[in-house]
Amino acid sequence: MFFFDIAKDPIERLIMAEHDQASRELMAPRSTGGTGTAVGGEVSGKNMPLMFKGQEELVKQIAASGRKPTAEDMQNLRAMAAKGATQMTLRVRASDAETAKLVSRRSFFETLYMVAGIAMTAITIVGLLYMVSSRLRDIGWP
């Protein structure tokens, strides 16, 4: 139990550092296969760190036209984002294997963080119960 008291913070920091690194990599601009342009980066001077397939073309078309996006344009962008996020979450035909890998890695560390906390708590409780039962046996209780 004493070990877990000391080790909890370093374990938590290690897991969250990996989770944060995966998040930063996920949000960083990446090359689209073959074109050499970064997905994300800057469009019309605005930072667009993560775009799904189809969104980039629509944003570039809106930026090239020089007009404000209409409600229909915004609805199309939201629909593409929802579709891409759903596919990535469900791992159904992920458009980019690297992105799917990063999402999977980030999810793994989120889950590991929860499991580590639960495991350390369970081991501490079992240790306390063992010490209490040992003490009860020592004083003569059955």
Could you explain how this protein is built, in words?
The protein has 142 residues and is mainly alpha-helical. It has helices at 2-27, 55-65, 71-90, 97-138, and strands at residues 30-31, 38-39, 42-43, 46-47. Strands 1-2 form a two-stranded antiparallel ribbon. Strands 3-4 form a two-stranded antiparallel ribbon. Strand 3 (42-43) and strand 4 (46-47) form a beta hairpin. Helix 1 (2-27) runs antiparallel to helix 4 (97-138) and helix 2 packs antiparallel against helix 3 (71-90). The longest helix has 42 residues, at 97-138. The chain is rod-shaped and about 85 Å long. 6% of the residues are buried. Residues 32-39 have low confidence and may be disordered.
Q: What can be said about this structure in brief?
A:
The protein is mainly α. It contains four helices and four strands. Strand 1 and strand 2 form a beta hairpin.
Adjacency order of strands in the biggest sheet = 1-2
User: How many beta-strand runs?
Assistant: 4
Distance separating the two termini? 25 Å
State the share of residues found in helices, binned by percent: 55-70%
Order of helices and strands: HEEEEHHH
Q: What fraction of residues sit in β-strands? A: 5-15%
Rounded mean pLDDT is 75
Number of helices: 4
What descriptors fit this protein?
142 residues, mainly alpha, two-stranded antiparallel sheet, 4 helices, 4 strands, 70% helix, 6% strand
Architecture blueprint of SSEs:
Blueprint lengths: L1 H26 L2 E2 L6 E2 L2 E2 L2 E2 L7 H11 L5 H20 L6 H42 L4
Antiparallel strand pairs: 1-2, 3-4
Helix pairs in contact: 1-4, 2-3
